[in-house]
Design brief:
3-stranded antiparallel β-sheet
Length: 206
């Protein structure tokens, strides 16, 4: 017997079934590996729960909002103020026009349905993004008609302590302050008398 014959006689006969099993197992492991590597990428394409709700409309109950009171909610990472204005508050608005930079809301800071002297759908309900249009600080709400250190003829409104910008009770900016624009009015609507939806335009809005 030759040396080659001796070595061949020591090798076990080939098992085609075992070879197919090993090939299949290798393929499965490879597929799992590719899937595991791809999972973070595929997951990144799906919006997270937080991303799904960040731009969603927010419905707010205002049935117990007292005259002169402001309620704050969060929408798209911004603070939205909802105020029920009194008749006296509304009466101050026309008298301030000579002291305001944009009294007629000509700048695009509100939907068309809020481009009026009270900057709202219902005169008594004010809905505003209350971040100052200068650098984004949140102004103090000072609704009382009384003299202030920064304005002896204060008629009520918003005062930003960061850089002393002032806005009236419709969110209109005063002359001579760092802020150049009125406070922003977000899209909103009233599904009924006791709720406001932030993020959904008033019916009939373009």
């Amino acid at each position: 017997m030759s040396e080659t014959d001796s070595l061949d006689s020591l090798q076990p006969p080939a098992d085609p079934t075992r070879r197919r099993l090993l090939t299949a197992a290798t393929g499965v492991v490879g597929a799992v590996g590719v899937g595991a590597a791809a999972w973070p990428f595929l997951a990144s394409l799906r919006p997270s729960a937080k991303a799904k709700i960040v731009g969603a409309p927010v419905e707010v109950f205002i049935g117990n909002l007292e005259p002169g009171q402001m309620q704050r909610v969060q929408w798209r990472g911004q603070t939205i103020g909802i105020m029920r204005r009194t008749d006296n508050m509304l009466a101050q608005l026309p008298d301030l026009e000579g002291r305001l930079r944009d009294p007629n809301s000509e700048a695009d800071q509100q939907p068309e349905y809020a481009a009026n002297v009270h900057r709202s759908i219902r005169p008594e309900i004010l809905v505003l993004n209350i971040h100052c249009t200068h650098l984004g600080c949140i102004p103090q709400v000072l609704p009382e008609v009384e003299a202030q250190p920064f304005d002896p003829d204060w008629r009520g409104g918003f005062f930003c302590p960061c850089h002393r910008s002032r806005f009236d009770l419709a969110g209109r900016v005063y002359n001579g302050v760092p802020a150049a624009l009125n406070l922003l009015v977000p899209p909103y609507s009233f599904p009924d008398d006791e709720h406001v939806i932030i993020g959904v335009d008033h019916e009939g809005a373009s």
